[in-house]
């Protein structure tokens, strides 16, 4: 780590703390040459491999922008989208790979988006699951209906006393 003041390559760590979200480490460093202190923020790199073969850094903002299109006109807040992006990042980082395929990121979005808004889920899934026919949409809708029925509390029939 180069000192931002004198460009000396040698510094020592004075203090380390985990950042608020737990995904980074904040380190206070002191330059061995000029004795000035500076802060660094260290994160584990995560790259997304695009179809073109280009790798770019993972970005929650790109997830939010992509999902926002699917949520257009739906009752989904910016906070909901931020939470979804955080969940997707945690899922992908949980795999332990430093590089992940862009299609895998899209698939990781599906489960949290399905819980957030079913219409937005269908819009997004139609792209990432390559829906080609109306039958593809019908199958997805039927699966949503079955899941909704399974999640609904079962009501007991009223009995006469």
Question: What features would you describe in this structure?
Answer:
Residues 46-136 form the ATP-cone domain. Belongs to the NrdR family. Its cofactor is Zn(2+). Keywords: ATP-binding, DNA-binding, Metal-binding, Nucleotide-binding, Repressor, Transcription, Transcription regulation, Zinc, Zinc-finger. Strand 1 and strand 2 (24-31) form a beta hairpin. The chain has a three-stranded antiparallel beta sheet, with no helix packed on it. It has 161 residues and is an alpha+beta fold. The protein is built from five helices and six strands; from the N terminus they run βββββααβααα. The mean pLDDT is 87. The protein has helices at 60-70, 78-94, 102-116, 118-128, 134-151, and strands spanning 11-18, 24-31, 37-43, 47-49, 55-57, 99-101. Helix 1 (60-70) crosses helix 2 (78-94), helix 2 (78-94) packs across helix 3 and helix 3 runs antiparallel to helix 4 (118-128). It folds into two domains: 11-43; 47-151, no CATH class. The longest helix is centred in the C-terminal third of the chain and has 18 residues, at 134-151.
H/E order of the elements?
EEEEEHHEHHH
Count of separate structural domains: 2
* Amount of beta strand: 15-25%
Q: How many DSSP H or I helices? A: 5
Largest sheet: 3 strands, antiparallel
Please report the total strand number as a whole number.
6
Q: What structural class do helix, strand and pairing data support?
A: alpha+beta
Q: Give unreliable regions as ranges.
A: none
End-to-end gap:
79 Å
Radius of gyration: 23 Å
The helix fraction, in percent, is: 40-55%
- pLDDT averaged over residues: 87
Query: Which shape, going by the Cα principal axes?
Result: elongated
Strand order of the largest sheet: 1-2-3
Organism: Galactobacter valiniphilus
Domain ATP-cone: 46-136
InterPro entries: ATP-cone_dom, NrdR-like_N, RNR_NrdR-like
Cofactor: Zn(2+)
């Amino acid at each position: 780590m180069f000192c931002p003041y004198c460009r000396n390559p040698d510094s020592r760590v004075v203090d380390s703390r985990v950042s608020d979200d737990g995904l980074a480490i904040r380190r206070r460093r002191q330059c061995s040459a000029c004795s000035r202190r500076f802060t660094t923020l260290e994160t584990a790199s995560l790259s997304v491999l695009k179809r073109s073969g280009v790798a770019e850094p993972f970005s929650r903002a790109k997830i939010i922008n992509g999902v926002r299109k699917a949520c257009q006109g739906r009752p989904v807040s910016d906070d909901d989208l931020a939470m979804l992006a955080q969940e997707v990042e945690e899922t992908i980082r949980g795999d332990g790979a430093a590089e992940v395929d862009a299609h895998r990121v899209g698939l990781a979005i599906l489960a949290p988006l399905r819980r957030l808004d079913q219409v937005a889920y269908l819009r997004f899934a139609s792209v990432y699951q390559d829906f080609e026919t109306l039958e593809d949409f019908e199958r997805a809708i039927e699966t949503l209906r079955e899941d909704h029925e399974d999640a609904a509390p079962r009501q007991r029939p009223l009995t006469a006393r």
